[in-house]
Amino acid sequence: MQVGFIGLGSQGAPMARRIVEAGFPTTLWARRPASLEPFGDTAAKVAESPAELAAASDLVCLCVVGDADIEEVAGGENGLLAGIKPGSVIAVHSTVHPKTCHDLAKKADAQGVSVIDAPVSGGAPAVEQCRLLVMVGGDADVVERCRPVFETYANPIVHLGDLGSGQTTKLLNNLLFTANLGTAASALSLGEALGVLPARLAEVISRGSGNSFALNALGGDAGGLDRLAGLAGALLQKDARLVADLADTAAVACGAVLDAADATLTRMEHPR
Prior knowledge:
- The chain is of the alpha/beta class.
- The chain has helices at residues 12-21, 50-55, 67-74, 80-83, 98-109, 123-128, 140-150, 165-193, 198-205, 213-217, 224-250, 256-267, and strands at residues 3-6, 26-29, 45-46, 59-62, 89-92, 114-117, 120-121, 132-137, 154-161.
- The chain has two domains: 3-162, Rossmann fold, CATH 3.40.50; 167-268, N-(1-d-carboxylethyl)-l-norvaline Dehydrogenase, domain 2 (Orthogonal Bundle).
- The chain contains twelve helices and nine strands.
- The chain is globular, with a radius of gyration of 20 Å.
- Keywords: NAD, Oxidoreductase.
- It comes from Mycobacterium kyorinense.
């Protein structure tokens, strides 16, 4: 399988490297030439445009930041859809609105091209250990065609259902993480006010029934939300907005998890 990869950031770059090192013929494209420099010592080829990359690929993996980036890379006279071959697959690793994947799929289907959504969780360390979590939505046969490529950096690879279900799952995961950040930070602050050092409290809770990934992300610091706000506040804000829009469209209530996430985002100075 010939693979194309676009989105060589902190998450995408190690994923692309694992694909290349596994021996899949790989073509890369990036808006910034600096993103391609680390691949100078690999067998990867570099395309002049997304269209050229698509023409050389059976599977195109997108790991760009947001919905607008997907639309920009796919559209236009030099976009993916201008060069992609019938029978090819586009895998959206970005965390975006499910509607963005459906809109892309409608355009791609007219050209005989399949789209699956495959957002990821775990970060660069998980890629290095081949334990990135991939949440996939789309046709089962197409997912299985892509699985050997995904297995170069991921385990587990969970097929959740129809196109868009991977994105919905990732957004719900991020919403719960946001809510847990706020509750964990509040617990550490409350403990400090009651005379228990936050680092010691975190050490105990991390070994108890109250443990969470969010608690550990705070690093035992009651003020850890301030540090995380600069790193992830805007992305968590984006994802909370997308979940709220999904729920509004489906006319269902988000409940306590969105309330808690909203409180967290407000504390992080990134209100929804």
